Amino acid sequence: MAKKVSVLFVCLGNICRSPTAHAVFRNLVQQEGLEGEIEIDSAGTGAYHVGHSPDKRSTQVAHSRGIQMSDLTARAVDFGDFYQFDYLLAMDESNYRHLYEMALPEQRDKIHLFLTFSNEFTQTEVPDPYYGGPQGFEQVFDMIDSASHGLLNHLKQHHL
Ligand code: 4NP
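A: This is the predicted complex of the input protein with 4-nitrophenyl phosphate.
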């Protein structure tokens, strides 16, 4: 069997945006019966929340949209990720720069701003919701949902 295509969602803490993307994209992949063909993970560029469960505010918004994410646990990005994953999907420019600096030059093509896969949003960054209000978490979810559909279409066209 061909190797799975693999995607790693990356934000700062790995407790809000990237675990939401992990769970939303996982749900979409399961709905399409593609679990055997796509590997999914998430990680943070910072290590402050390693070992923590996702932020309750993210978990609650996801739950209200029918997505389960409380099984996920935060970890930090490591150098092995640049070998293991085909796509490293940064939530914002700061995450993107962090990944870019960690990567070997030949690994840098794997790094993308996740929201650029959305067909609906013209912004390129999923903003950090951590210090904001509940509306930020709803907006983050909408952006991630849209980019997830775009990403799956992209993978179907190029890999599956
Ligand atoms: P995330 O959100 O990067 O979407 O997981 C954040 C979580 C924690 C912090 C910042 C952003 N923090 O500063 O602790």
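The domain at 5-152 is CATH 3.40.50.2300 (Rossmann fold). The chain has a mean pLDDT of 97.
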